[in-house]
Specification:
The structure holds two protein chains of two kinds.
Chain A: E1 3-11, H1 17-24, E2 30-41, E3 50-67, E4 70-76, H2 88-91, E5 96-101, H3 110-118, E6 123-128, H4 138-145, E7 153-156, H5 161-188
Parallel strand pairs in A: 1-4, 1-5, 5-6, 6-7
Antiparallel strand pairs in A: 2-3, 3-4
Chain B: H1 9-12, H2 18-21, E1 38-41, H3 54-62, E2 68-69, H4 70-77, H5 81-93, E3 97-100, H6 111-122
Helix pairs in contact in B: 4-5
The chains are: A alpha/beta, B mainly alpha.
InterPro entries (chain B): DUF742
Protein name (chain B): DUF742 domain-containing protein
Pfam families (chain B): DUF742
């Protein structure tokens, strides 16, 4: 029986998450959904009363068989839905995450970056350059997003498998460095 | 002539509300499944399972040849993830499937495991 692992692909709506899943997955991206209940405070509600909101969160995913013993699942998080963060099962136990960014709407990636940083989930930022247009350098994006110097930033075109692979390898490289520093800390203690 | 009071399949949507399949349960009382818990049918049960829901039969059929993740089952059968988890819990109780949970959260991935994944990605 193989072991299953997962990598999340987050980022704003329309930034290319599904395209990325499709470019590396061995199966066509499938969609799955879950109903989650979130406590929310209504914006229009002057009393600020907390209510329960039930919402259906959908995300798509793909599969990469690494070996007979290892299967990697890629989960594209819902783009517009701010409730996916509440779906614990989606975010917990991920090997790492890709934050896909679009230079025209960098602010759409802030929430995901904060989320992964706060949870110590290794991640890389993939700057999706549609039509090969490179409107910013990796360094400019790093500064605009106020990223840790160790966080990889990769300019990519996720329609291309080779390019998506490069982004995944950057995430795994960040995960490896985190695992190595954990070992070093344990050895030093 | 078609009776206008009747909807065809496409207009009618689901015939059964998903949680009716689980008897109203939204989670299983004994078993915990994640999105990437893998399911395999047990081959030694070839007889007909007349007592099972069609959705449970579909899960057994899907997981006969290889290990399939809970998320994949939900995607293919167009069911909410929590419904699939409840059905799989019942199938596990009935000893009709075996399951493989992903590594524990407390068990951080090793450098060696990460490098195996990297090698696999390079070879795509």
């Amino acid at each position: 029986m193989p072991t299953a692992l997962k990598i999340l692909i987050a980022g704003g709506f329309g930034v290319g998450k599904t395209t990325m899943v499709g470019s590396v997955s061995e199966v066509a991206p499938l969609e799955t959904e879950e109903r989650i209940t979130a406590a929310s405070v209504g914006v229009d509600d002057l009393a600020g009363i907390e209510r329960k909101t039930s919402t259906t969160v959908a995300m798509d995913f793909g599969r990469i068989t690494i070996s007979p013993e290892l299967v990697l699942y890629l989960f594209g998080t819902p783009g517009q839905d701010r409730f996916w963060f509440m779906w614990d099962d989606l975010s917990s136990g991920a090997l790492g995450a890709v934050v896909l960014a679009d230079t025209r709407r960098l602010d759409a990636s802030f929430a995901s970056i904060d989320f992964f940083e706060a949870r110590d989930i290794p991640f890389a930022v993939g700057v999706n350059c549609f039509d090969g247009r490179r409107e910013a350098t990796a360094e400019q994006v790093r500064q605009a997003l106020d990223l840790d110097p160790a966080t990889p930033v990769v300019l990519c075109d996720v329609r291309e498998r080779a390019s998506s692979k490069e982004v995944l390898l950057a995430v795994l490289d960040a995960a490896r460095r985190q695992a190595e520093s954990r070992l070093a800390t344990a050895a030093g203690a | 002539m078609r009776d206008p009071r009747w909807l065809d399949d496409e207009q009618a949507g689901r015939h059964v509300r998903p949680y009716a399949i689980t008897g109203g349960r939204t989670r299983h009382s004994q078993h915990h499944f994640t999105l990437i818990t893998l399911i395999v049918s047990r081959h030694d049960h070839e007889y007909e399972h007349d007592h099972l829901e069609p959705e449970s039969m579909a899960i057994l059929a899907m997981c006969r040849d290889r290990a399939v993740a809970v998320a994949e089952i939900a995607g293919q059968l167009d069911l909410p993830v929590s419904v699939v988890k409840v059905l799989c819990g019942d199938l596990l109780n009935a000893e009709l499937i075996i399951v493989q949970s992903p590594p524990e959260l407390s068990e951080q991935p090793s450098v060696e495991l990460i490098e195996r994944v990297m090698d696999g990605i390079r070879q795509l």
